[in-house]
Write a structure and sequence with these properties.
Layout lengths: L4 H8 L5 H11 L7 H11 L13 E4 L4 H13 L15 E4 L11 E3 L2 E2 L2 H21 L12 H16 L3 E5 L17 E4 L7 H4 L3 H8 L9 E3 L4 H13 L4 E3 L18 H16 L18 H9 L7 E4 L4 E4 L5 H19 L13 E5 L6 H26 L11 E6 L3 H4 L4 H20 L6 E10 L4 E9 L1
Helix pairs in contact: 1-5, 4-10, 4-11, 5-6, 8-9, 12-13
Amino acid sequence: MERTYNDAVAALNTLQTNSAVIDSIRKSGKSLNTQAIPEMIEWCRRAGYEPADFNQLKPIHVAGTKGKGSTSAFISSILAQYLPSLSQPNPLFHKIGLYTSPHLRFVRERIQINNEPLSESLFAKYFFEIWDRLEDTARAQGEPTDKTAKPSYFRFLTLMAFHTYVREGVDTAIIECGIGGEYDSTNIILSPTVTGITSLGIDHVQLLGDTIESIAWHKAGIMKTGAPAYTVPQPQAAETVLFQRAKEKSVDLSTVPEHPMLRSIKLGLEAPFQRSNASLAITLAAAYLRTLSNSPAIPTPSESTLPAEFIHGLERIHWPGRCEIRREKCIAWHIDSGHTLESIKLAALWFLSSCQQTTTTTTASPPSHRSPRILFFNQQQRDAPSLARALHSTLLSSTSDSSSSDDSSSSDSRSPQRTALSICNIDKTVGLYSAVNQSIVLFLYVVYCFIYYFAVNHSDNLRVVFFQVLQKNTKTEGYSPEVKTLS
């Protein structure tokens, strides 16, 4: 009997989840497992691979606290402009792999080829190829073939992604780290073509340490001798650690400033902070292209011009849930996956900037005709109250500054514009995109109605309404709402 995609998802969900792994490490009081890489290598061997087998993927490896997913997506979008098309009769590539996490709607999003999620049939095919290999190895060694014969959820998907890209013959694979770098499951890569480290901040402190130096040490683990490495401007303490580790590894590490052309390019991810991610992506994509024997003339990162393919890639990127605005008839949903204090503040500034841009076209309309704006954010088991307070504080201070500026520069007597800001926090991003049972559908509908009513009828007040959906049972997808209002 043929096994389907649904069968694969059901089997995958029996494995230990990443959150369960993190929780067990937190409760043990230990740091990330120093045996993680040897264990991952052993899983590779049980599936019939050696780490060196993945060198053929010519991987681009990306780590960081903030923006590593966006940077990876920017790289993939840039390189995709060199795929076969009417405007590209002499393509450099035929297949580009992109491995990211987590997923928003369905697990296939994590494993992409040419910026499209793996099809259901291919996902099932490659999933069960790895599943069966692991069971066959266990059986041959006289071991049980139950879930103990498989790695955890994230490790399995990482192994499956590498297997998929080998079988599909991708020309290159852009690999985003999961957590950290040094002990991350993706760090079985031996010979990346280039590595990149995005902006660093404090996150996953139980796993990576509670100092920026410790976090930088972990992230620097992806750097490999023989492959150039690039990073964005970092806090001084983090930068010192990165360059020290680069020296220890004999790696040429460079810091990438904002590219001068980005001020005149309309990025597919419009938030100002995305220019740092785009700049790093430009540099990583260019470094990779220069390794190809048939590569066209690629400008160095310091040059002010960019090829048309780079510009198109930066403009055409589509990365759901990151600086995304979804508009309905009378409401605008602002969606971003920020989950650290720094990310939340930047998301708040992006949200306000977007609101201000929209406001310039609607100030002549009566308040009842203006669309409420909603900022959705996902806290993923972080310190949600602290994130909400940081968000609230940033919104208040920024709107106050803007109002003061308007007052001082205006000669008329109009009052500063006031905006109703409704912030909705969902513990599982899947709740935003696909309701997995009726309780989530009902709850989100109630949230939607409340936010809409609040925004339309209380537009003269600045308040932050903070919804937190707490996961009660990962197997039954049960949730309970906790509503807090911050004023």
